[in-house]
Design a protein that fits this description.
mainly alpha, MetI-like fold, three-stranded antiparallel sheet
Length: 552
């Protein structure tokens, strides 16, 4: 007798009915749970894709204007009396540039108008002309055609980022106007809008003997508060015209008997409310541009085809500037490059050496286990902690140069080192043990096994981990800010590993904190460029993995 028969429970053996209603119901429930799980997964992926598309579309729509620069073409005469052939760098390029621009507007003669006129050009335009002449000194004494950028407001105006006119009334003020209109308290009188108010002529504010000397403004304010009891104290000034009190005054002067009584009176509203009631909108010239006459000058340039909008090569060839139309990323790109070079030289060699020792040579004991645990924990430490460590050790203890790519690269290498060690160990573990056994079987030493067989086979994974770690370091901001690597670098001529510099993430942080409107688009453009570098680095990692990967 078999063991199964000996240990089976007493009674008849029953077979499970897979076709029963309860079984089909359970199977149907399992399939439904599977479908729900698939839907949840697809929904999560779809949500992530939608959010990514929203982010990218927002960055592209905001940053696209920064890839174009609006310039005005000037006919410049490089006067030898203003620019010396022996030392052209000390020439009066400001006068040369302004004189050439003023030729387009011979009717502008007053000093104040000229100040407004010159604001159309970028304040850095003379420096652009100076740089061009320094490169081409043979142009001194000649007439040349050269395009200089417009200042940020007019550059944004030409691109359609800044409107020529803006809403004169806030949303709340417009709602007040709509309420007055709905209550039929607004009417047209002689082509102008008037408000029909119930006004109490307070005898405490108006003397019957001298009604012209009364204070009628508080009476109007009281009449407005009776309609809008919760409105702000400035509502009277917003709704009524400046001469509204004069209308009440004239009425009381003509009929002094009204003092102490309540009367219905139509008083004029402000110009903005008048436009809102008559035309449905209240617009004013954008005060950002100052005097409205500058729009006529700007339109004159556009009508004569003197304005040109081209690809902004200056975004890549200029260093930082306090003028948005002149600011570029070359200094930040150079600083990031030097920092990544230092980071790579330190973390790549040290990370691979540490990983090889821990994986191939280190004894398995509590001490090495403690090291492995700490390496894994360091990979999860926030980057700001490494910045504090670099600030305390590299700058505070060793006194290394502040804001330099050398210190920035060393801090980033501390942050990247655990990632490279973990990726290298994973790549070494992926190499089959048979490779090591075969090499040892033919008489190779441990060193030869590692350098000639294991390491070449693990190199694709090592390179992938290294590039991903460097890409992560490229986007870090907090550690670089803590070591002061956000210096204002207007020129890249003095940039070096030991000189003050900035980086792409800190440049983005600096531009995002700037009040000028032009830096908004430049911030988004810099983010797109940074994402482009990250994409290239990750694509390089994928290419290297596929190119050097060996199958066994």
């Amino acid at each position: 007798m078999s063991d199964t028969a000996l240990h089976s429970p007493p009674g008849p053996i029953r077979s499970h009915d897979w076709g029963s209603a309860s079984a089909r119901k359970r199977v149907k429930r399992r399939y439904m749970h599977d479908r729900i799980l698939q839907w949840v997964g697809l929904g999560s992926i779809g949500t992530g894709v939608v959010l990514l598309l929203i982010l990218l579309s927002s960055l592209v729509s905001t940053g696209l204007p920064a890839f174009q620069t609006t310039k005005v073409a000037l006919d410049l005469f490089i006067d030898p009396s203003l620019v010396s052939r022996e030392d052209p760098g000390k020439g009066n390029f400001r006068k040369i540039t302004r004189d050439a621009f003023a030729k387009y507007f011979p009717d502008v003669t007053s000093r104040s108008d000229k100040r407004q006129l010159y604001k159309i050009m970028s304040s850095g335009a003379p420096f652009n002309v100076r740089k061009h002449i320094l490169k081409n000194p043979e142009l001194i004494g000649q007439n040349i055609s050269y395009a200089v950028p417009l200042s940020d407001p007019y550059d944004q105006l030409h691109k359609g980022v800044i409107p020529r006119q803006i809403e004169a009334l806030s949303r709340g003020q417009q709602q007040l106007g709509e309420q007055l209109k709905q209550r039929r308290l607004l009417s047209l009188e002689d082509g102008k809008t008037a408000a029909n108010l119930t006004i109490f002529i307070n005898p405490e504010l108006v003397n019957a003997e001298d009604p012209a000397g009364g204070d009628f403004a508080p009476m109007l304010a009281e009449a407005i508060r009776a309609i809008f009891p919760r409105a702000s104290p400035t509502i009277t000034r917003d709704i009524l015209a400046p001469d509204a009190a004069d209308t009440v005054k004239q009425t009381v002067v003509e009929a002094p008997a009204l003092i102490g009584k309540t009367l219905q009176l139509k008083v004029p509203v402000s110009q903005n409310f008048d436009n809102l009631f008559r035309t449905g909108e209240a617009m004013i010239d954008n005060p950002r541009f100052g005097d409205p006459k500058v729009f006529a000058w700007y339109d004159s340039l556009a009508e004569r085809n003197l304005l040109q909008s081209n690809f902004s090569i200056e975004l890549f060839t200029n260093a930082d500037s306090r003028f948005p139309e002149q600011a570029g990323l070359l200094g930040a790109i150079a600083g990031s490059f030097f920092s990544l070079v230092v980071c790579f030289l330190l973390s790549f060699v040290a990370g691979i050496a540490a990983a090889i020792y821990l994986e191939e040579f280190a004894p398995k004991n509590k001490f090495t286990d403690l090291i492995e645990v700490n390496i894994n924990n360091l990979a999860a430490v926030p980057s700001v902690v490494f910045g504090l460590l670099g600030l305390a050790v590299f700058l505070g203890t060793f006194g290394m140069p502040r804001s330099s790519p050398l210190v920035g690269g060393m801090v980033l290498s501390l942050m990247t080192l655990p990632t490279i060690i973990i990726a290298t160990r994973a790549a070494l573990q992926a190499v089959p043990p048979s490779i090591r056994e075969a090499a040892l079987g033919v008489g190779a030493s441990r060193h030869q096994v590692i350098t000639h067989h294991v390491l070449p086979l693990a190199m694709p994974g090592i390179l992938t981990g290294t590039i991903i770690g460097l890409a992560q370091a490229l986007g870090e901001t907090a550690p670089l800010l803590l070591i002061g690597m956000n210096a204002f670098i207007p020129s890249i001529e003095s940039i070096g590993i030991l000189e003050p510099a900035t980086a792409l993430p800190t440049q983005i942080f600096s531009w995002a904190d700037s009040p000028e409107r032009g830096f908004v688009s430049r911030t988004s453009a810099a983010i797109l460029i940074l994402l482009g570098f990250l994409f290239i680095m990750n694509a390089t990692a994928i290419y290297l993995r596929q190119k050097f990967e060996r199958r066994w």
